[in-house]
Amino acid sequence: MRRVVLVRPRGPRNVGMVLRACDNFGLCELVLVAPDRPALLLHPEFAQMSHGVADVREKVRVVDELTEALADCSATVGFTARVRDNRIRDNWNEVREELGVLAADPGERLALIFGSEESGLSVEDASLCQRLLHVRTAAEHTSVNLAICVGIVLQGLFSGEQVHRREPGGHPLTGAEREFLKANLKHTFVEHVARSAEAKRVIAKSIDRIFSRAPLETSDARAWHMMMRSLGSAMRPSDFGLDPSPSARREAGDEG
Predict the structure, then answer these.
(1) 3-state secondary structure 90-136
(2) Which terminus, N or C, of the chain has the lesser number of Cβ atoms within 10 Å?
(3) DSSP assignment string, 47-89
C-alpha cells in the first residue's frame, strides 16, 4: 500500500491534481498535513482538477502533524530538491525499481512525503524520513511542480499487478512502533548508561540518526527491547505517551 503525504500544501489545484494521480495509479491513500487553507477541499479549483474521482471525502485524510500521518507506516521516503541537514539524497531514477517492489508488497505501508510548494520539506520533516530522494532536473530549474513530481513518482511505481509477495516472517515496524523503540533506547542508554553529558548527547543523536532511517522489522525491535530489559528497563509505550499497535506491545512484553 502506498500513501502520499503532502506537508502544508498551499494550492487547491495541486492537491486536486495529486488526488487524480493517486486515483490513476492504483491503490494509493492521500493524507494532507496542516494544509494552508482549512477549506481547501471545498475550493472550486480542487474540484476542477480532481474531476472524475469518486468518493473524494473517503480518499483524503487531513491531520495536524506529520508524525500522525506516518504513525502506521513501515517505510518513509521524502522528496526534496534541497539538501537537508547534510543528508544524502538518492536519485529517484536509481531507486525506482527498488521502491516499486516495496510499494507492491501487501505487507508494507510506504509513505511518499512531499513538502509545500513554497518551501518544500523542513529539516524537521526530513528527519522523519528514512530516505530522501531527488527527482533530477535540468540545471536551469532544479525543482519540480508538486503535482507533477507526485505524478512522476506514482507512475514510476505503477505496475498494474502484484510483482512481489512478502516472505513469511517479521513485519516492518510502523511509525509508532519505531518511536517507542527510539524512546526506550534513549531511556536506557542515554539516561542510565551514559556517564557524561557529552556521551548522552552523542548517543541520543546516534539513536535518532540510525533508528529513524534503518529498515527495521518487529523481530529487530524485539531483540533490542530484550537487551534493554536485561539492562533493567521495564518501560512500556504508555510511559512515553505512545500507543503503538498490538504488535509493538507484544515486542515490548506487554502481551503474551
Answers:
(1) EEHHHHHHHHHHHHHCCCCCEEEEECECCCECCHHHHHCCCEEEECC
(2) C
(3) HHHTTT-SSHHHHEEEES-HHHHHTT-SEEEEE-SS--TT--E
Write the pLDDT tens digit of every residue in 23-48.
Answer: 988 778 999 999 988 888 889 999 99
Superfamily of domain 2-157: SPOUT methyltransferase, trefoil knot domain (3.40.1280.10)
Distance from C-alpha of 84 to C-alpha of 242, rounded to nearest angstrom: 27
Domain spans of the chain, in order of start: 2-157, 175-251
Euclidean distance between CA atoms 125 and 84, whole angstroms: 9
* First-to-last C-alpha distance (Å) of the chain: 29
Q: Are 56 and 19 in contact (CB under 8 A)?
A: yes
Listed residue (135, 216, 148, 153) closest to 182, CA to CA: 216
> Do 49 and 13 touch, CB atoms closer than 8 A?
yes
Beta partners for 112? 4, 77
In the predicted structure, residue 254 carries a pLDDT above the cut 80: no
